[in-house]
Amino acid sequence: MLTESSSAVDENIVYQPEPGGETAVYVRNACKSFGVGKRRATVLRNLDMNVKKGTIYGLLGASGCGKTTLLSCIVGRRSLDSGDVLVLGGEPGSPESGIPGPRVGYMPQELALYGDFTIKETLEYFGRIYNLPGEFVKSQMEFIFKLLDLPPGHRYVKTLSGGQQRRVSFAVALFHEPELLILDEPTVGVDPMLRKSIWNHLVRLSTDHGRTVIITTHYIEEARQAGTIGLMRSGHLLAEETPQNLLVNHGLRTLEEVFLKLSRTERAKKHGALTASGRAVRPTDPSQQEDRGHDNPAFICTADNPDATSIGIPNNRTNISPSPTSNQYWKSSKSVLPRANEDGIVGLTFSPSRENLEETTRNRHAVRRLYDLNVNSPIEGFSSAPFDSREVISNENGLIKTGDRSTPSCSSASSSCGSTEVSKRPTKKRGSRTFVLSMPTAHRTAALIRKNFLITLRNIGMFAFVFLMPGLQSTLFCLAIGRDPTSLKMAVVNEELDPSVGRVCNYTTDCTYSMFSCRYLRFLDNSTIIQVPYQSLSDALDATLRGTVWGVIHFGHNFTEELLERQINGNAVDKETIQASRIGITLDWSNEQIALTLQHRLVGGFNDFNRNLVTSCDYQPVIPSIPVEFMDPVYGKKNPSFTDFMAPGIILTIAYTQAVSLTAAVFINERKQGLLDRSLVAGVRTSEILLAHLVTQFTVLVFQSSVVLLVMLLVFKITCQGSLALAMFITLLQGLCGMFYGFVVSSLCDQQTSALQLSLGSFFPNMLLSGVLWPMEGMSIYLRYLSYFIPLTHAIEALRCIFARGWGIDRPEVYWGIVVNFGWIVGLLLVCLTVIRVRKYTG
Ligand SMILES: Nc1ncnc2c1ncn2[C@@H]1O[C@H](COP(=O)(O)OP(=O)(O)OP(=O)(O)O)[C@@H](O)[C@H]1O
Known about the structure:
Layout lengths: L22 E12 L6 E12 L3 E6 L5 H8 L7 E6 L16 E4 L11 H11 L4 H14 L14 H14 L4 E5 L7 H18 L2 E6 L10 E6 L2 E6 L1 H8 L4 H22 L9 H6 L17 E6 L24 E2 L4 E6 L6 H18 L10 H4 L4 E2 L5 E2 L28 H5 L7 H17 L1 H21 L7 E7 L21 H7 L6 E5 L3 H9 L5 E5 L3 H11 L5 H6 L3 E4 L4 H25 L25 H31 L2 H7 L4 H30 L8 H25 L3 H18 L11 H7 L3 H15 L6 H31 L1
Parallel strand pairs: 3-7, 3-8, 5-6, 6-7, 15-16, 15-17
Antiparallel strand pairs: 1-2, 1-4, 8-9, 10-12, 11-12, 13-14, 17-18
Helix pairs in contact: 2-4, 2-12, 12-13, 12-21, 13-19, 13-21, 14-18, 19-21, 19-22, 19-23, 19-25, 21-22, 22-25, 22-26, 25-26
The chain binds adenosine-5'-triphosphate (ATP).
C-alpha cells in the first residue's frame, strides 16, 4: 500500500521527469467528431499525445476544447473516428491493455457516485469490484480518509457538500492503487490547501511508486507540478512539454501566459494562412472558434506528397517526446526502409501502387516488429492492434494504401477529421475487441447485485415505487374498475297516485290488483337507483336536461287498470291501452355505462315484480318470462363482472410497465451520473451488469407479481379457474419482457424525459391494442393483425384462458403466450445490444 510518509514531500514540490520512461498512453492522429451532416462537429483533430510511465501529465485547455472527449477515448468509453490510442501497451478494450480493469483508476467529470451509499460503502463497493482483500480495503480506507480529509465514513454521499463529494470520487479512483490514474478535473470545488495536498500525493505516486497520472484542470498554474503539460486548443495540442521548458523556451513567467501566447501565435498563423490563400477570414476570437465545432479551415492538413503515405513511430529508447508543433515525422517518399529521425521517430513511407502491394505488406510486418521493440510493450506477443489502423486499405479499385500517419489527415473538403480515404480504419473490426458479452465473474456480479438492492431499499421513492405501487395499483383497479355504478338519481312521475280517491302506495305482497306502479318501484334496487318524486313529466324531463337526475320513470293515470286489461285481453287490446299500460322511461344516454346499468336494473325490476305478482296469485312464475333461457355457462359466471375480464390484462400491464420504468430509470440515471462509465472502466462487464439487474429485477418481479395476484385473487376474489403457478410464470415472463424493453429504452435515450416519452408513447398503443380494455374481436381485422405483434396481446389471452377457462399449457392459446414472450425477450435483447454497439461507435 502506498503511504503518505513514504516520501517527505515539500508543499511546493515540482516534478522532475524521470529519464528513460516508458510509454503509458500513446495517442496518434486522434480524430473524433460528433453529430452528422451540417451538425457534425470535429472535437479531436489529429491529436498526438505521449504520456510516459511514472509521470504526471497535465492536460490543460479551455472549456470545450475536447479534454473530456480525449480522456473518454483513452479509457475506452468512446471510439476514435480514426487514429490510434494505446494504453499500457494495448488498445483500450483489448486484453493487452489495462482498460477496462484495475490497472486504471478513472475519475470522470461527473460525480459518478451513488448518493444512497455512505462513503465507506462506496469504497467497499469498488473494493468488491476490484476484488481487493478485506485487510487491504481496511487499511487503505484509513489512509485515504486521512489523505483527503474525508468526512466520517457513515455519512451518505448525497448529504455531502460538492467539494466533499468530489473528494470521495477522487478517493474511488485512488483506492485500488492503479498503475494509471486518469482524473478529469479532480480539483474542482476543492479548497487551495487540499488541492495542494492532492497534487503532492499525485507527485508522490509518480515519483515514489512509478504511477502514471493524466489530469485535466482549469487551474493552469497548479499544473506546474506535472512532469509534462499538454496545452490543448480546438481539439489538438499546441505544445507538449515540461512546464520548465515551456516557461524557459517562451521566456514567460506563468503557464497561463505561455498558453495565451501559443494560442495567439496559432491564431495569427491561421489568420495569415487564410488571408494569403485568398479565402475568407474567419473571426479570430478564440471563444468563437472553440464553440463553433472547430471546423475551421485553418486546421486543414495537407500532405507534402499526397501520393505517399508514411508511418511515424515513437522511439522510446531515445526518450524524446514528439511534439506536434515540431517536425515530428520523418518522411521520404518511395522509401520502404524504416529510419529514425532526430526526434526519435521511426518512419516508413510506402508508395501505394499495385506493384508495391506485396512489398507493402512485408513492410507492415517489419514495422510491427520495429514497433514491438520501440513501444516497450509489456505484453508478450504484442498484438497487431497498434498497426491494424495503419494496415493496407483496399479501395474500390483494388488499390491498396496505408493510412497516412506522417501528415495530419483532417479532411479538407468535408471539414471532418479522418474522412479521407487514407485515414479510415478499414481492416480492423473495432467492435470485436470491446464489445464482448464475456462470462460474468462472481465477485463483480455479487457486488452489483448488492448495490442494486441497497439502492432500491434505501431510496424512499424507489422503495415505494417497487414495493408499494403494484399492491396499490391492483387495489385501485379492483376498487375502481368493473363495479356497478350506484346511487343514480331517477325522477319518478307517478300519475296513478291520488290520495283524494285513496290511491296511495301500499306495501302489500298479496294477490292484489291495485297500485302496480308502487309495487313495481319496490322491486327497483335501491342501492343503484335513488327515486326522486316529481309532480309533472315536464319538470322531470327538465331535471334530466339539467343533469340533476339520470332519467325519468313515468306511470300513466290508469296504469294498473290498463296493464291488467292488456294482460287479460292480450292481442285484443287497442293501441291506447297499450300506451297507457307501459312504464315510460326516458334516460340520459350520455354515459353509456350508467344508462346500461339503469336499463338492466329497470328491466330486471319489472321481471321481479311480475314474478312476485303471479306467484302471489298462485300462477307459475315462469309464465310472464320470455321463452328464451340461458343455461349454466360452459365457462365463467352467469353474471360476469367487467373486473374479471380486465384483471388478466391489468396484472400483466402492471408487471410490464413496472419493469420498463424501473429498468429504464436505473440505467439512464447511472449513465447520466457517469456511474456506468466508471463501473465499465473499472472492469465491470456488460454481461455482469445485465445479470445483476436480471437477478435484482427478477426478485422484485416475484414480489410484485405475488402481491398483485394476492390482492386480485384473494382480497378481491377475481376468478382463477386454472393453475396459479402457470399464471405466475406468465406474469414473470411479461415482467422480464418489460425489463428488456427497459434496456432498449435506456440504451436509446440519454435523458429521463425522452425515456418517459418513449415509454409512455409505447404504453398506450400497447394497452389499447392488446385487448386489455376491450375484446380484440371488436377491432377491425387489420388492426387485429397489428395487435398480434404487441408483446402483451398473446400473454393476456393466455392468462384469460387460465383464469376464466382453467386451461393449461397444453392449449395453444396458453403456450403461444409463453412462446411469443420468449421471442420478444430475445428480440429486445438483440435490439438493445445492437443499439449499445452502434452508439458506442457513433457517440
Ligand atoms: N456526445 C456528444 N455529442 C455532441 N457533442 C459533444 C458530445 N460530447 C461532447 N461534445 C462536444 O465536444 C466538445 C468538447 O467537449 P469536451 O467535454 O471534451 O470538452 P472539455 O475540454 O472537457 O470541456 P470542459 O473543460 O468544459 O469539461 C464540446 O463542444 C461539446 O459540446
